[in-house]
Specification:
single chain; 104 residues; GIY-YIG endonuclease; 2 domains; three-stranded antiparallel sheet; 37% helix
């Protein structure tokens, strides 16, 4: 059985990088060593691992990685901090057409 990791790195410019790998230690070392000059993290080192989630299904891992990449900074930080109440609040639709706001 294979294991896949979705991870979030905090960069030196305080931005977040989200990635997926099947070998977390190797991939972190590649990021930290600057193996790929075209990688987002290359000019943003040093890096700090802030979050990791293990998956046994690569499709679930890919789905979760893509989902996180579309999140706001606040949602990523709520996930990193295990603040699931805040994550739920930030996930709610806030536009005027949402069912919660009809008739108000």
């Amino acid at each position: 059985m294979f294991t896949y990791y979705v991870y979030i790195l905090k960069c030196s410019d305080k931005s977040y990088y989200t990635g997926i790998t099947n070998n977390l230690d190797k991939r972190l070392n590649e990021h930290k060593a600057g193996k790929n000059h075209n990688c987002y993290t290359f000019k943003r080192r040093p890096l700090e691992l802030k979050f990791q989630q293990v998956f046994n299904d690569v499709l679930q891992a890919i789905y979760f990685e893509k989902k996180i990449k579309g999140w706001t900074r606040a949602k990523k930080e709520a996930l990193i901090n295990n603040d699931f109440d805040m994550l739920q609040i930030l996930a709610e639709c806030r536009n005027a057409t949402h069912y919660k706001y009809f008739g108000k």
